[in-house]
Amino acid sequence: MTPEDRKTFVHKFCALALLGVAILAVASIVVAPLAQATIEARDEVASARERLAALKARRLDLAALEAALKDETARSVDRPLLIEAASSADGWRKMEAQLRSIAAARDGEVTSVRPARLEDDGALKALRLDVTLRTPPERLAELLAAVEAAAPMLFVERLRATAGQGSDDDRLDLSLTLRGLAAIGAPQPHAARPGARR
């Protein structure tokens, strides 16, 4: 190789080396940031999609909750919470009549009713009845469910069931305490306060 050829080779080698350096520089300055930006953009898109999916799910949950609230409101209109009564005695009487109707519709029989503790909060009173009744065993669950679903609302606070005593049938004797909330106010038809019955 002549000196002139060697010089040309060195020049070409240096040019190729400089070209490689330039390519690396361009890659580090332009390509790498672009790649990083692409990755970040994909992450942002994925995050946005997750947020959108969460919002859609939340919207569905809110729609379901709103529907449930509307349904409960509609049912509450037909199921008043309070017993409207002119007096505590009137409220007890209405509770007793309500319970007797529920029991009779399910082959039950109320055998005694006695007004129990009264919680007085001005116009709103919590009335309680101590009750004994007889019911077929197979209708016990139905009877209790009907009491809990009654309108105005009744609440079972205490319950004790025993096998019937002194009878040829197999009915259960139930002893329970019922609680109802009464709004005492507007005049109602006169009724005597319920007492113990057998």
Give a topology summary:
Elements: H1 3-78, E1 83-85, H2 88-104, E2 109-115, E3 119-121, E4 124-135, H3 140-148, E5 155-163, E6 172-184
Parallel strand pairs: 1-6
Antiparallel strand pairs: 2-4, 3-4, 4-6, 5-6
What does this structure look like?
This protein has helices spanning 3-78, 88-104, 140-148, and strands spanning 83-85, 109-115, 119-121, 124-135, 155-163, 172-184. The protein is of the alpha+beta class. The chain folds into 2 domains: 1-78; 83-184, 2-Layer Sandwich (Alpha-Beta Plaits). Strands 1, 2, 3, 4, 5 and 6 form a 6-stranded mixed beta sheet that branches. The longest helix is centred in the N-terminal third of the chain and has 76 residues, at 3-78.
Give the gist of this structure:
Helix content is 52%, strand content 24%.
The total of helices stands at 3
Portion in strands: 15-25%
Residue windows where pLDDT falls under 50 for at least 5 positions? 188-194
**Number of E-state strands:** 6
- N- to C-terminal distance: 133 Å
- Please tell me the CATH architecture of the largest domain by its name: 2-Layer Sandwich
Based on secondary structure, the structural category is alpha+beta
Report the radius of gyration as a whole number of Å: 41 Å
Shape, per Cα inertia axes: rod-shaped
Helix fraction bin: 40-55%
- Return the average pLDDT rounded to an integer: 76
CATH first level of the largest domain = Alpha Beta
CATH superfamily of the largest domain: Ribosomal protein S6/Translation elongation factor EF1B
Oligomer classification: single chain
> How many domain units?
2
SSE succession: HEHEEEHEE
Please summarize the sheet with the most strands: 6 strands, mixed
CATH fold naming of the largest domain: Alpha-Beta Plaits
